[in-house]
User: Fold this.
Amino acid sequence: MKTTRMMKISEPILRRGSLEDIEEITGIENRAFGKHAYDYPELRYMLGIANSITTVATVNDRIVGYASVFFRKNSRISHIESIAVDPDYQGSGIGRALLREVENISIEMKCTKIVLETFEKNQSALKLYEGSGYKLVEHVPNYYHIPYDGSRNAIKFEKNIEMK
Ligand SMILES: CC(C)(COP(=O)(O)OP(=O)(O)OC[C@H]1O[C@@H](n2cnc3c(N)ncnc32)[C@H](O)[C@@H]1OP(=O)(O)O)[C@@H](O)C(=O)NCCC(=O)NCCS
Assistant:
């Protein structure tokens, strides 16, 4: 049983997300972020109004993770607004697959750099970004409203991207 699931997890199917996925994405967001989760109106903005592209990872047609990247007019810098994987599926390579897809999308959108912020105590996120070639560019004190592991500080990362 476990082996079967692991085989499927190692090959999540990625597709573009849309407003139609908001219920499932809200569930992932709440389970992954808890009290730090974006609320429904914020996710509706992210999926339906913002200049953004959302990718969802599915296993057996169920969404198990998502990533949303924002773009700005006349800017070649994209911004990862959110990336989250259902806790039951974390540590299986889905976060890394979503991050790679965000990078590919950003390149298609003619961006040359990706930026993001994360909590300074968010070990899994730090490991994901550091292991994917993101460079720490700034510590930002009290960036977040609600502390994570006792800290409201953020770390800003960036990565230069280019067509291979
Ligand atoms: C951060 C997150 C998206 C990573 O997704 P994931 O599918 O678990 O990550 P992957 O399996 O692709 O692993 C990526 C790296 O993170 C590490 N990692 C994953 N979970 C971890 C954990 N709980 N503790 C420490 N490291 C962890 C992995 O070891 C891997 O590093 P490695 O290749 O050097 O071993 C996921 O843990 C998550 O949704 N967390 C809650 C929401 C969040 O914090 N999002 C990021 C906000 S900026």
Observations:
- The pocket of coenzyme A is lined by residues 32-33, 83-85, 90-96, 118, 122-125, 127-128, 131 (CB under 6 Å).
- The chain has a mean pLDDT of 93.
- The first strand starts at residue 13 and ends at 16.
- Residues 94-108 form the longest helix (15 residues).
